[in-house]
Design a protein that fits this description.
With about 600 residues, the protein is of the alpha+beta class. The protein has 15 helices and 20 strands.
């Protein structure tokens, strides 16, 4: 079973909206082979009964789905009664989370529906209100490490927007903007721009380009050019509200406007923010700004010898980043990632229990072209050569204030070295390398810890030492990377675990929950998190008696009086779920379901 799955050809972009570009097919095929080589057991083939959401009887639910079939077509309504097959990044399910620390059946959909237009999304929302059935919209379902395609409420009907709503509606080469539907990936937009011959336009892409532009932006994901803050670079939304109304934000509210993608604010209150990381509406169209070709670029990489160099490095980076000498969202990666991203299992280097010894990691990198180090800084300079030269000289002078710092000559690096993947990504060219570290353990899965801090050496050291200590406490390898924004810094820690081992899943979950609380006590909050951690993370934003959450709940109840839209996302529960044990917090029993929902409230739409 595993062999046949591994050998099947990865779908290409010409065959499927979620496919891989032809030029990356070999990389994707190799990555798939490595992932399936790390799987120790086949997926279950047993038939399943669909999960029925709490608050509705099975008979009424079945009748309701038949009603929806009559509206969308039977081919666009799928009952989730088949085996839960995890697949992998490029061929993932839209029914559950393939990387959950919980039992596979906890966060699972009852059915999946496929709208083909905003009007069909509206019909689904009205249907959900009529029957009080929870719905959970996804763009493409590739938010892996944060929940994937899984709904927070077991038995929700997943609305897969990407399958049929995947058009690039406009690319404006004069305004440097585009307008896309939820099923457009970074791969797809890049390929479209290249096909049109718009060499003066760049996109900004995250580490892997297979995700939805809309989904990534709404979750406030990042890329690695100067346009790396995706939410800051969007302009204009079309949204279906939880009661079925359709709105356009910003200039989109003006009939006949010609600036929807160029001026994000329009007139009056700026409402876009309430649709980011929320359950207040379904975004069906989004405008994005595109970066102008800077007229040249040059990647660079510096190696730093010691763990304690981190604080000095961060303090050097801060003024350079604020002053835009360091121009892009760059990465500072720990040495263990240099080894892990090669895609080999950790048993290649160490077969013992607990975290891999540091001396073994250093012995491995001593054999590699980059040489021994503890930290690598990946950056890029943009513009014509004379401008790059000026900035790079400043960077070199500052970085070399740290004893032992050295600039790695790209000429000595083979073409399969990770440096070249970062080079492509920082130039707005999507790639397919980052996934390889998932193979570090059997049945490799990952879940992220993502706190935000100031760009200060003391803060970086505090977070690093806390993360390392707690990873060692739970016997987990620590894979940290710092992503530096203009005035803030994200520590991104991916816990890589064996999803087939209950003990490893529990250790990953416990480590994450302890890190969240300990970081919050020091003033560091998560900017993004996995579904099972959302209640806990939301609870850390508790200033003034939880005033922010109370505000969110008031918005939720006003916009979604029947509580059907993605209940529990970002810790925001509708009134009919509150006080019934749906919240998942540290010290709980880690069940995703609560004790029913409040009976029919008789709200009239």
């Amino acid at each position: 079973m595993i062999g046949s799955e591994a050998s099947s050809v990865v779908p290409t972009l010409s065959e499927k909206h979620s496919g891989i570009p032809q030029n990356l097919l070999d990389k994707a095929q190799k990555a798939k082979t490595l992932i399936y080589e790390g799987k120790t057991s086949s997926q279950s083939s047993r038939q399943r009964l669909p999960v029925i959401p709490q608050g509705i009887s099975k008979l009424k639910f079945v009748d309701a789905l038949k009603e929806l079939e009559s509206q969308l077509g039977i081919e666009n309504v799928e009952v989730n009664d088949k085996p839960l097959v995890d697949g992998w990044y490029m061929e993932h399910p839209n029914t559950h989370d393939i990387m959950s620390t919980l039992d596979q059946e906890e966060l699972v959909a009852s059915a999946v529906v496929y709208p083909g237009s905003t009007e069909e999304v509206q019909n689904i929302v009205l249907w959900a209100n009529k029957h009080q059935i929870p719905i959970f919209p996804i763009s493409m379902g590739r938010n892996l490490g944060y929940g994937g395609a899984a709904p927070r409420v077991r038995g929700s009907v997943v609305i897969d927007l990407g399958k049929r709503m995947n058009k690039i509606l406009n690319v404006n080469p004069e305004d440097y903007t585009c307008l896309v539907e939820p099923g457009v990936s970074f791969y797809a937009l890049y390929e479209d721009i290249q096909a049109k011959g718009y060499k003066h336009l760049w996109i900004d892409t995250p580490d892997l380009g297979g995700g939805s532009i809309v989904g990534n932006t709404l979750d406030r994901g990042v890329g690695y050019t100067p346009y790396g803050d995706h939410w800051a670079c969007h302009s204009g939304l079309e949204v279906v509200l939880p009661t079925g109304e359709i709105i356009r934000t910003g200039m989109g509210a003006l009939p006949g406007n010609n600036t929807w993608q160029t001026f994000p604010y329009g007139f009056g209150p700026y409402s876009d923010g309430i649709f980011s990381q929320s359950n207040f509406g379904i975004v069906t169209k989004m405008g994005m700004t595109l970066m102008p070709n800077p007229g040249g670029y040059e990647s660079f990489m510096y190696a730093f010898e010691k763990e304690e160099d981190l604080a000095s490095l961060i303090d050097i980076i801060r003024p350079l980043r604020i002053g835009n000498i360091l121009e892009n969202v760059a990465q500072i990666r720990h040495v263990i990632q240099t080894v892990a991203v090669k895609g080999k299992p950790r048993t290649t280097y160490f077969t013992g229990e607990g975290p891999i010894p540091e001396d073994i990691i250093h012995k491995q990198v001593q054999k590699m072209p980059v040489g021994d180090h503890t930290w690598l800084y990946f950056g890029m300079s943009y513009g014509p050569e004379h401008i790059r030269k000026y900035k790079l000289e400043i960077i070199d002078k500052e970085f070399k204030k740290i004893a032992g710092a050295r600039k790695v000559d790209p000429k000595v690096l083979p073409k399969d070295e990770y440096f070249w993947s970062r080079d492509r990504i920082a130039a707005g060219v999507p790639d397919f390398v980052e996934l390889l570290w998932v193979n570090w353990v059997p049945n490799g899965s990952h879940i992220a810890f993502s706190p935000v801090s100031p760009i200060r050496g003391t803060d970086a050291s505090k977070l690093f030492e806390m993360g390392k200590r707690l990873h060692h406490k739970y016997g987990i390898d620590f894979l940290p990377a710092f992503c530096v924004g203009l005035r803030e810094m994200h520590l991104i820690v991916e816990i890589v675990f064996d999803k087939n081992s209950p003990a490893k899943c529990q250790a990953a979950n416990d480590c994450l929950r302890e890190m969240i609380d300990e970081a919050a006590k020091e003033g560091y909050g998560e900017y993004r998190t996995h579904l099972v951690l959302m209640d806990q993370v939301a609870g850390t934003y508790s200033w003034n008696g939880g005033a922010l959450m109370k505000f969110h709940e008031r918005l939720k109840d006003a916009l979604d009086p029947r509580g059907i839209m993605a209940p529990g996302k970002s810790g925001i529960w509708p009134e009919r779920y509150r006080g019934r044990g749906w919240e998942m917090v540290r010290g709980g029993d880690e069940r995703s379901e609560g004790d029913g929902v409040k009976p029919e409230v008789g709200t009239r739409l």
